[in-house]
Design brief:
Helix content: over 70%
Oligomer: single chain
GO biological process, one term: positive regulation of ubiquitin-dependent protein catabolic process
Protein name: Coiled-coil domain-containing protein 22
Radius of gyration: 56 Å
Number of strands: 2
Largest sheet: 2 strands, antiparallel
Number of helices: 19
Pfam families: CCDC22_CC, CCDC22_N
Distance between the termini: 58 Å
Mean pLDDT: 77
Structural class: mainly alpha
GO molecular function, one term: cullin family protein binding
Low-confidence stretches: 1-12, 127-137, 280-292, 297-342
Domain CCDC22 coiled-coil: 144-619
Amino acid sequence: MAHLGSAFLCPRCPGIMEEVDKILIHSLRLSGTDIPEEVQSIREFTTELIVESVVRCLRVINPSVGANLSHVLPPGMSARFRIGMSLAQACQDLGYQGEVGYQTFLYSNEPEIRRLLLFLVEKFPRDASEDANQPVGKSATLHRAIAATIKGQLAIPWVPPACRTPGLQLLQGSRLMKQFQAQRLILPQESDPFIGKVSPERREFFVKFLPPVSAQLPQPATLVPSLLELNMAELSAAQEWDSEWKSQGLGSRMTPEEYRQWKYQRLHQRLLDQLRQASPRAGPSQQGTASRELLQLLETFGAGHEQAGALAKGSRFTHTQHLAYKQDAEIPTQVKTLPNSRTSEQEFRESQAAELENMESELSHLIAQIEELEGQISTLGLTLTQVEGEVRQQQMGVTEQEQVLRVKGCTVELLPDAENNMAKLQVLVESSAQRVIQLAAQWEKHRVPLIQEFRELKALHDSKELESSQRLLEIRELHERIRLAADEAKRKDDLYKQLLVEVESLPKDISRSAYTQRILEIVGNICKQKEEITKILHDTKELQKEINSLAGKLDRTFAVTDELVFKDAKRDEAVRKAYKYLAALHENCSQLIQTIEDTGTILREIRDLEEQIESETSKKTLSNLERILGDYRAIKQENISLLSRSRET
C-alpha cells in the first residue's frame, strides 16, 4: 500500500490511477461501504458516498470514535457543516498531515479525497502490524467490543432518575442489580486427587440422589455466582497444584500420585498428633499403640469423658452434699400456716422480711463454709502432691540403696577366698582386655573397606545428586518451554480461526491472484518509472556537466584570443576590426545562450502552469463555487425562516 500511496503523486499515469482506485474501492467495500457497481473511480464519488466511506473507515479503525458519527448526511446545511467538521477533527486525531476541513467532504476534489481515503485504508488494523504478544481471535474481538461498549456507556452523562429515558433507565438504573452471593455446589467426581477412585457408595449417591445444580440452590439468582465461584476455585486449585509440583514435587523425586499420597498421609499424621496431644489421660483400657486411627482416638475422647463423669458422680464432695440433702430430707419440715384473717398485712410483711433476712444470713454462712472447704481441699491437694513427690524420691533412694547393698553383699561373699577370687578377676579382666583388643583389630580390618566403600558410595551419591539436579533444571526448563509452546500454539490457533472467518466473509467471486497480479503490475510500472526518472536525472547531470565544461572552455578560449588580438590591434587596423568583430560575436553568443536559457525557463513555467490549470480543473472549482453559492442561499433561507419563527414566538 506504500507503493500505491506514492502512485497518486504522478498525475500523468491514468492507468495506474485506475488500478489504485479499483483496489481502494474494493477495500472500502470490505469495510462496509455501500458503493454501487457502476462506480469505478474516485472521480465518480458523490458527497454522500465520500462521507459514508470516511465514517465506515473510522468505525473500522476506532469503533468508539466512529460509533458517534452518522454515515448519512442530514438535509440541513448547518448539520452538514457540523458533520464535516467532526470528520475533519477525527482524521486529524488519527495523524493525517494534509489540509482537511469541512470543505474536503462537502466540496471535494479528486486528489484530496484519494489521498485521504488512502491514508484511512492504510490505518486499517492488520495482523502484520499488530504486536506479536497481542491476543487475537474471538476472545480479543469480544474484549474489544466489551471495552468499546463500556467506554461508550461511561461517556454518557449521568441523568437524574426522573429525567431518564427507558434506554438510560436500563443503563443507569439499579433496579435490575443483584447481590453477588455464591452457594456451595456439589458436582459428581470420577476420582479424588488424594484418595484415588471414588467409592461405590459415593458413586451411587452421585447417580441416584445428587440433585442437579439448579436444584441445589435455594434461590435461582445465586446460580451464576455459584458457578463462577466454583470455576474460580477449581482454577485456583489447579494453579496452586501446578506451582507446588514445579517447586516442591519435582524435587521430591516422586510421581504426582505418590506425592499426593505422601501429602495426604502427612496431613493425617499431623491431625492424629494434635488430637493425641489434646486428648485427656485415659486408663489402661483406653491407651493404645501410636498408630491408633482417628475414630479410635475419638472413641477415647468419649470414654475419657464418661469416666470423668463417673468419677465426678462418686467424688467425696458429691457424696457429702448428697448426704446433707438426704439428712435435710429426713428432717420433718415445719409447715407454717398462713396468717389468718385477723393478722394484719403489715405483720405478715414484717415476718416475711425477717424470714428472708434469716435465710440470706444462713446462705452467706453456707457460702463461707463452702469457700473454706474448697480452700482446705486445695491445700490438701497440694499437700498430697508434695507427699507423693517425697514418696517417689524415697522409693528412688531405696532402689539405689538396694543396688549398693546387692554389690556389697556380693563383695562380702567373695571375702573368705579373696586371693583366689582376685586372681580369677584379674584373669577375667585380662581376657576381657585381650578380647577387646582382638575385636578392635577385627573392627579395624572391617572398618577400612567399609570406609572406602562409604566414600565411594558418597561420591556416587553426590554425582547422582548433581546429575538429578541438572535433570531437574532441564525438566523445569522443558516445562517452561512446553508452556510457552502451548501459549504460542493457542495464539496461532486463534489467529488461524480469525483468518478463517475473514476468508469465509470475503466475496467468493473475487480472485485474489488477480488482485495480486494487478498490484505486482503496478509496482513493476512504478519501478520502471523510477528507473526512467533516474536515467533522465543522470543524463541531465551529464549534460549539465558538459555544458559547464564547454562554457568554461569557451571563456578560457575567448580570454586567450582577446589577449592575443588586443596586442596586435594597436599596430594593425585590420586586426583592430577583427577584435571588434570578435567582441561582437562573443556578445551575440552570450545573448543567444541567455535567450535559450530564458526559453527553457519559460517552457518549464508554461508546463507548470498547464499542470496547475489541469489540477485546478480537476478540483471542479466552478462546480464547487456554484454549490457553495447554493448552500449559501439555503443557509440564508434557513436563517430567515428561523428569524421569522423567533419573531412569531
